[in-house]
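Support case: magnesium ion complex. Customer-provided input:
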Amino acid sequence: MWDYSFAVPSLLVLTIILLFYFSLPRLPIRMNGNFLNTLIVNSAVIFLDIVSSWADEHYTQHTVAVLYVLNALYFAFFFARAYVFFEYTANVFRLDPSKKLLQGALLRLPFIVAIVITLSSPWTGLVFSIREDGYHSGQLYNLVYYIFYLYLIFSFFVIFAYRRRVPRRRHRYSILLVNLLLVVGITARGMYPRLLLMDTFCLMAIIVLYLTFQNPEFYLELRGPIFNSTAFRDYIDENNGKLHHKALGIVVHNYHEMRDIYGGRQIDRGISLISNYLVENFQDYLIFYYRKGRFIILGDKDMPMEHAMGLIGSRFDQPWTADDLELYLEAEFVTVEMSDSVESADALLNAMILAMEKADKLDATEPIALDRLAIESNEKETTVKRLLEKVVDEDSAEVYLQPIVRATNGEIVGAEALSRIRDDSGNLIPPTVFIPIAERNGRINKLGEQVFEKTVRFVKENSLDKLGVSWINVNLSPIQFMRPDLDERYDAIIKKYDIDPRSIHLEITEESMEDDSFLRRQMQAMDAKNFKFVLDDYGTGYSNLTRLKKCPFINVKLDMSLVWDYISEPDEILPNMIQAFKHMKFTVTAEGIENEDMANIMRDIGCDFLQGYYFSKPLPMEEFIEKYST
Ligand code: C2E
Ligand code: MG
Ligand code: MG
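Agent response - structure generated as follows:
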């Protein structure tokens, strides 16, 4: 009556998948739990499908009770199968049906009702009944199809409505394929009931899930039975804020040097030995490996850190040995207590990696304790980095202009362009925060150029004469200044807008002057293209007047700190310095002028130009135009 030639091989293949899946460590995250349910429920359905079909066929050899139990179990698992596939689909889109109580209960209701009806069948005969002549389908037998199609509709709804939540196209297509296979499976079951075909399609769906999402090796570091940093991120992201975690970072001291000394292959084997040691000795915890000899043990709030460090430390006092291998390594530690949630797993991981790097460099005898503050400041930096990417991508840096006035009459002669960026809620982030970060990660090149181009466009689109402005200063970071193609890039922008390069002055700081010969070459190249230079923040760094003399600056800006020091405690040094600059044919600007007294004093000791809140704060371009148009 039944043909088992699809169902039996399906069960065998599923067994292989189960064996593989269980032979490797699995990360305790929801998705893996779901997959486990899917595997168990499907194995049960296929097994019961074969057994109950066989028993129905040979009903004379079994008691009625046995037939009822086998068939009821089969149908119950069949309904559960519809639900577990749906639950998995929801999870791929990071929806957790069990999270919202009511919603979760409603979503489970159909299959639970169906199971209850099935279990009542011995008395009601609704789904099936067993009579003298064996198995019979009941009036509600088609529930099998209704329930399955219902959950498939839910799944397709999720796939469509939440498609943006899954950025990888491969993932979206795979989960779509899984559900299409299920559609084909349930339809084939209706068309060819005797072939027991559906199990094969469900198996195909499981194989797609395994290949796309579930292969445990996605989360494993190949060197040993230990999780990788993707696993760390996914685990923390899913459990963020829910658990009180402790983490212990372990650093193999001088990893690179050790690689040079012992050779790459030996060190890889050593890392493998360490992994095994950690897995064996810390079975209750999750162990991760993050490249370059850095491990993380993640535990709950009761993890005995001191004890763990003592244990691992003394293990490292012994060599790591195997066959022909004998490695002498040292370990450094970083400890973290996460009492609250962290902004993201990335922020935590970055903070830990930085701390581990530090521990390694310092050759610290004590572990470095990473506290909330350190993680937070790292989070902030991560946020700023993300915003910088956005600003560079979307060309959305804002440029504010602050007037620079003539000291003798307070009238505007120029302006300084100062960049501004905003966080996601629209608040301004000060350049003192984002410029150093942009300088560290190189984004300053694009950002600085953006500010430069926006200023050039401003010059092009507005009549500077009407604003009373002869030039606008733009800041140039030492990082940008080091680029050999700077002159060409900036010249191209000047040409694009066809403005006079002399209307833009570039402010550089003394930091840019460290490499003497490069400085001179760069300035000459830029000078040849008619760019003018201003020395910014004079008095904050190491200054050498003879060196300054050799550089074609047109103006020196006295840093605010120098100006304020002089105001609070006048001496002969600053006035003399200003005279020296004038001898060198530089004009002088004083920054940070906040009141009339300061303006007068700085004018009297010879400053040509003044800049500061007393005259105006930096203004958005439109406000600047409104205020200074004549
Ligand atoms: P800076 O080039 O020395 O710019 C002057 C800074 O002093 C500005 O701060 C300005 O708002 C502030 N300031 C002006 N007058 C007063 C005053 O009377 N009192 C006080 N307390 N402060 C005053 P801001 O805009 O926060 O910029 C800070 C620094 O960030 C700048 O110092 C500059 O080094 C850097 N920066 C800003 N925009 C850019 C840019 O586009 N590129 C580069 N490379 N650096 C930039
Ligand atoms: Mg400046
Ligand atoms: Mg300055």
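The chain has 25 helices and 21 strands.

Case will auto-close in a few days if no follow-up is received.
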